[in-house]
Amino acid sequence: MKFYTFDELTYPAVPAEAGPEVRFTNRFCDPLTVSRTYQEHLDEWALCEELGFTGVFVNEHHFTAINIQPSCNITAAAIIMRTRHMRVGVIGNILPLRHPVQVAEEFAMLDCLSGGRFIGGIVRGVPAEYVSYNIDPFTSSERLREAYDIIYKCLTEEIFDYDGKYWKLTGVSIWPRPIQRPLPFWMPTGSRETIEFAAERHIAGAQVFFPSEAFRECFDLYTKVARERFGWTPGYDQFVGARLIHVADTNAKAIEEGREAINYFFRVLGRPVNNPAPVPGLHGDQSYNHRRRIERDFPGPHTSFEQLREDGWIVCGDPDYVTRWLERDMKIAGYGHFLGMFHVGNLPHDRVVASKRLFAAHVLPALRDINVDAIPDQPLAAHGDMPYQVRETQSLGLYRDFNYTIDCDAPEVLRDFVRKADGRTTAGWEMRVPEREPGGFPYQIIFSGPTSEHRGSAIRLRLVDARGTELAGDSDVMLEVHDGAEARRQVVFAGKYQAFKEIPDQHAADAAVAAQQRAVAEDGYIIHLRVALANSAAPPDPQADGSFFELECFKHLLNVTA
Amino acid sequence: MGAGDASQFTRNRIDLGGLNVAYLNGGRGAPLVYLHGLSASNRWESHHLALAITNLVYAVQLPGWPEGSIPAVIESAHDYAKLIIALLDALGLDSVDLVGHSFGGWIALDLAAEYPSRVSRLVLADAMGLDVPEAPAADLAAMDQDSFLRAAFVETGRVLVPGDFGGAIEDVRLGQEFETQWRSRELILGLTRGRLADPELTAKLSSITAETLVVWGRDDRLVPYQHGELLARMIPHARLRLIDGAGHTPMRERRETFQRLVRDFLIGEG
What we know:
The complex is a heterodimer.
Chain A: E1 2-6, H1 31-51, E2 55-58, H2 72-82, E3 87-90, E4 93-94, H3 100-113, E5 118-123, H4 127-132, H5 140-156, E6 160-163, E7 168-172, E8 185-188, H6 192-201, E9 204-208, H7 212-230, E10 239-247, H8 251-268, H9 289-292, H10 305-311, E11 314-317, H11 319-333, E12 337-341, H12 349-367, E13 404-407, E14 413-421, E15 424-432, E16 443-447, E17 458-462, E18 476-482, E19 490-496, H13 498-501, E20 513-514, E21 519-521, E22 526-534, E23 548-557
Parallel strand pairs in A: 1-2, 1-12, 2-3, 3-5, 4-5, 5-8, 8-9, 9-10, 10-11, 10-12
Antiparallel strand pairs in A: 6-7, 13-23, 14-15, 15-22, 16-21, 16-23, 17-20, 17-23, 18-19, 18-22
Chain B: H1 3-7, E1 9-16, E2 19-27, E3 30-35, H2 46-52, E4 55-61, H3 77-91, E5 96-101, H4 103-114, E6 119-125, H5 145-152, E7 158-161, E8 168-171, H6 176-191, H7 201-204, E9 211-217, H8 225-234, E10 238-243, H9 250-253, H10 255-266
Parallel strand pairs in B: 3-4, 3-5, 5-6, 6-9, 9-10
Antiparallel strand pairs in B: 1-2, 2-4, 7-8
Helix pairs in contact in B: 2-10, 3-4
């Protein structure tokens, strides 16, 4: 079992006289109280690292006192800065209300900020959020699906286009990219649709509040769907159980403190400020069929505390009671991650801290060995470690992102030549990068040399004599760039013609000879491609039908703006 | 359009030849008139909100329902249809999408057959009015509250309804809506003098020109689904969709399924 802390970050001071007829608009919100509440929670979360928890999770809701984190990514960033080793996760971002590219960018940032400790999470939100964000709830499933696809591509692909119903994107290549590949994801999976969605994508499924048997039903369905439809078998690590929890020295004290806090919790829960009728479209009628048989009323202020405690809506008691209750719950439900929601409603800070300390001292060690998968998690990269490893590739491809090819007909070509001197014949082509015309843009020709990703940009060359006979392989080939001054001479390729000669089709993928060095040719630079060999009766002829060359390169317009 | 726009509505009243008609109005898009069945609340219901995402909804309260007695000038479903035409004229609406449930479905049928040019798309949900001897509508006059409940609903006990956080358990018998339905049964019995079928209606169905969706709770025991089958056969451009697990009020018992079917039909994806 892995242990985490997770709270609805509840605003603690909605006045008791605000009854059900009162709309909880932000006139009840005192920003200084919010500020103090944030600080208390941050202290409580940071404490968990010291107490040996595996991590902390945060979530987001809108327009409600039950959770004053409309963007949990901000909270996650704050927790990351207060911790060094713990996992920090969100569960999650309300995807249909957000732009998926920004979600991916923030997740990647959080992963880099934390040194690879981040866990991403996605949710669909609740109806009131669709009212005040003015989104069509009937599109929520489609939006979630599409947004997740885009996020996944952002986090795993170098660059991509996307043509969706809700988002159409071109040339997306996010910076930074995440340390963890793949980045782990969690999501709540209470309905049949979300279970299928998560099982297909190997996203860990979370359950909150409901009795142990209801958790079990959902996890069993997940396992069945994963096995039968997607061909894999989830372990304990794929399942998450979240419960309100309060631990005190004695059962009586825990019950007294917990009763008050949970009353407050249910008083402010589910109190949308603008929700004139039940908002349809988020769920299907079959969504909860798998849970109906054992479903109990979603509790509220009308439900007795004893009933809540018995059903596990709040696990509340002394360390011994809590240990026994959770042990049974974990064994029945079968989850491998426990999310303890310690800051219940308006429970005071010192009581939350005391509860966490008791839990860490007595409950956590007793339950640690339950529901542990055989294969342990990969160790996390520590702070300061080099997060990336350059991937060793046996055969690198050619540089693919060129946007320009110079060949015999290119405007840069000045002339071809054959000349004899000192007993050697030199033949080839001379090219020149034009100088800027008045009002025109200058440009650079860049030959991309080898990098860790590719072995250089393509050079294709074939030279024959006037009768069509190809040159000898031991001829010397040189491609260079210079501006007339020897100091700025750049050799792109120097080698034997044999390298070209032994490739039967230089236009086949990755078959061409590659540039050996990166070189940049600017205004007025000369580019020289030539072959030198001993004088012979049949010198090479660049104008012969069988002769050709192609230089793949990048043409970079220097866009000068005032 | 989002749920925000669709949640905004106004309460309106209009005088139509001496009759004061109340209606709720909200949403954006092509105009749509919703005619209620046995239960007529003056609330902006979940199914109004759902329709208002794609349409400008006029949810009419049929005169008589709020007051508990039908005005003397209304003597039939056809009179209500004429009243709705007067409403469209007064509002300057040339043609509308029309959704009618139960008794409202009867009015919608009559209106679509008698004034076909005024209806663009027609949705009939568990509509009354047809004479189907092999599967007659239940005899409302002979029912007590208990048998009425069991005829109208599939699940008469506690039912889980999805909500903002996890859903809530509801019991139809305890709801305000059931009380209204039970009471309005008297109104319909009075208006129709106990005859819940118009033998001439079937012959008129071929005049309906609107694209039509017939949607029915498969377990409707007030107006059996065979009525829906007949409608889908006799109306020229009609399709039938039966909803499992629903009785006479599929918009309540299978809220999400009903609303998705109707919505997809109205936006041309059904």
